[in-house]
Amino acid sequence: MRKGFVNEFAIGLSRYYPRKFAHFSDYGQVAKKDLMHRFILFSLSLIFLASCQSPSVKKVEVAVWDTFSLQFEGPMTSEQALENPFTDYLLEVDFVHASGHSYQISGYYAADGNAAETSADSGNIWQVNFTPDRVGAWTWEAQLYKGENVVLQGPGTRESYPIVDNSGTFSVVEGDFAEKDFRSHGKLKVSEDGFYQLAGTGGYWIKAGADSPENFLAYEGFDSTYRYQAQTRDGDSKTDTQIHTYKPHAQDAQPNDPTWQEGKGSNMLGAINYLAGQGMNSIYFLTMNIEGDGKDVWPYTHHQERQRFDCSKLAQWDRVFTHMERQGIMMHLVLQETENEKLLDGGNTGLDRSLYFREMIARFGHHLALTWNLGEENGPANFSPNGQDSTQQLAMAEFFEKNDPYDHPVIIHTHATQKDKEELLPPLLGKPSLDGLAAQINKGERVHQEIRTWKAHAQEAGHPWLIGMDEIGGWWKGVLPDEIDPTHDTIRSEVLWGGLMAGAAGVEWYFGAKFLHNDLLCEDWRSRENMWKQSKVAVDFFETHLPFWEMAPYEHPSWQKGIYGLRNDKNSLFVLYVPPKQSRWPNLSLPEGTYDVSWYDPIKGGDLQKGSLPTIEGTAETEVGNPPQSPDQDWVVLLARISKNPN
Fold first, then answer.
1. At residue 221, what are phi and psi to the nearest 5 degrees?
2. For all residues of the chain together, what is the average pLDDT?
3. Is the confidence at residue 175, as pLDDT, over 50?
4. Model's pTM, two decimal places?
5. What is the Cα–Cα distance from 67 to 122, expressed in whole angstroms?
6. Using CA atoms, how far apart are residues 641 and 277, in angstroms rounded to an integer?
7. How far apart are CA 265 and CA 259, in angstroms?
8. Nearest residue to 312 via CA among 125, 34, 74, 90
9. Whole-number pLDDT of residue 585
10. At what angle do helices 390-403 and 351-364 cross, to 10 degrees?
11. Which residues is 236 bridged to in the sheet?
12. Phi and psi, residue 69, nearest 5°
C-alpha cells in the first residue's frame, strides 16, 4: 500500500470527519490511539483504494496555509544503521501550482512514520511536509536519492532510489480556522521596512511572549531527553538532574490537546494554552545547548552524537510546535547557545552544521510562525572569547537563505553591552541574508536608544533590520516574579514601551538567574502574569491605533528623560509615551491644525479616553493638557489632526 496515497486520502477525509481525523490534519500524522481508530483508518483506506478505478473518486483537498504531508517507502534502515539515513539518503519533492509557481521541499527520515507514538528508531518511511500558499490545482513529484553524504551533493552527483507512485495531484481551497490560528493569516515574513508581516492578509504583527525558560524543550515528556550534567558555575542558574515537568500547568490542559503515547505532553501543551490565553504570541527556546547552561536539549540520538537525529523526539517536538502555531504562538527557534558556537565544524558551516540546519528546515520549515535565530549571544565576548566571527555568522545566514524554501526570518542574538554591539555588529549590516537582531540589552534605560541606533544603522546600510527586544538584563534579574515586583513599573516604562516606541518588532521576557522560576528552572508562567497582561495592553495599542510600521521617531528638546515619541506625517499622527511621576506634561511642536487628543492607559488598557483638553491647536509649543485621572502613573497620548487651519 503506497503511504503517500493513503496520507493524501486521510487529509481529505479529515475535512469531512473532523472528530476522527483532526489530529492527522493538524499534526501531520494519524492518531492511532486505540484499535477503533486503526480499524476506521484501515477500512477507509481500503474503500479509497477500491474506488481508484472509478472516475468519480473525490479529489484530495487541502486548505491554503495548512500542512500537506506525504510519506514514502524507502529501504528498511534505522537511526544507527551503518549507511546513515540522515546523510546518505535525500528525499526531495517538487510542488507545482497551476500558475507555474513552485517549491522544492526536502523531506526527512521518519523511522516507521509514526515515531511520536511508537518511539520507533527504525523503519522504511521518509516524509515531507508542505504548506501551500495559494488556492488552486497543484501537482507533486518525489525523488529519493542515495549516496555518501548525498544531502550535501549537487544534482549531478547522486543516484536515484526508486519510489513507487512518485507523483500526484491535490487541490488547495480556502480554509476556515480560528482567528488566532496562523492558518487564518498566512506565514510570518519580514516586511521591507523591518517588521513582521503576515503573508496571507498583509497585516503587520508585533510579538510578545516568553524568553524563558530558554531550555523549554528539556521536558520529561519527550523521548531520550535528560540533563547530562548539573550546572553549578557562578553567573548562571543552578540546576540538578531534574528536567521540566510543567506540573503547575496541568490545570491548563484541554481534552483535545495533541498529546502522544496516551497523554504525554499534557502539561507542556497546557503551558502553551495558558500563555496564549494571556494574549501572548511568541516563545523563545533553544534547540541545542549541549555545552551550555542547561545541557539538556539537542535533536540528536545522544548528546555526544552529531550526525544522527532522534526521530521520535523530533516528531514529538513537532506536535508541540504545531500546537503553538494553532494557538497563535510563534516559534522563536534559537539554533545554538553561545557555548556551542564552535561545537559543529569549529564554527564553520561544514558537514555537521549543514546537516543540523537541513534537518531543522526539513522537519519544521513548513510552519507558518517561525523565526530562525542563528545563536544566543553570538560572537566572542569577554566571558565567551571562543565565539564565531562575522564570516562564520554570515555563512550560517546564507545557508538558510539558500536552503529554506519558505524564506523565514533569520536573525541573530546579540551580547548585552553597547560596546559588544559596536564591535560585533557592523560587519553584518547591509547583508541581505540576515534579517535582524534579537537584542539583549543589559540596562533598561538604554533600550530605547540602542534599538533606535541599530534600526538607523541598518536603514543607512540599505537593508532594514527587524529588531526584537528579547532579553533585558542584568543577567541575574531580568523580569522578576510578580510576588517580588508586582507592578513592573521600570520594565514596563523603559523596556516594553521604550522598545516599542523605538521601532522594536516586539518583546520577549527573560527571567534572570537568581529567583524562583528562573531562566533554566521556570515551571510556571503564572509567575509573571502581570507582565503578560501589560505586554498585551501595549501590543493592543500599537496594533489597533497606529500604523506603527510607517512611523518615525519624534522628540522635543524640552522633554524630560523617559518620554518617547513617534510621528507619521502622512496621517498627521503623533504619539507620546510619558513615564510615571512627571513634574509636568510635555509640550511638543505640531504643524498648524486642530488635533484630537486621546489618552491610553498603559497599565489597564481599554478604550481611548479624553483628558482635560479634548482638542488642541498645533503650534511650536503645544500643550497636551492633563490625563483623565491618576496623574502620577504613566500615560500614552495620541494626537490626530482632524482639520488644517486655513491659510
1. -80, -10
2. 90
3. yes
4. 0.91
5. 24
6. 36
7. 5
8. 125
9. 83
10. 40
11. none
12. -115, 140
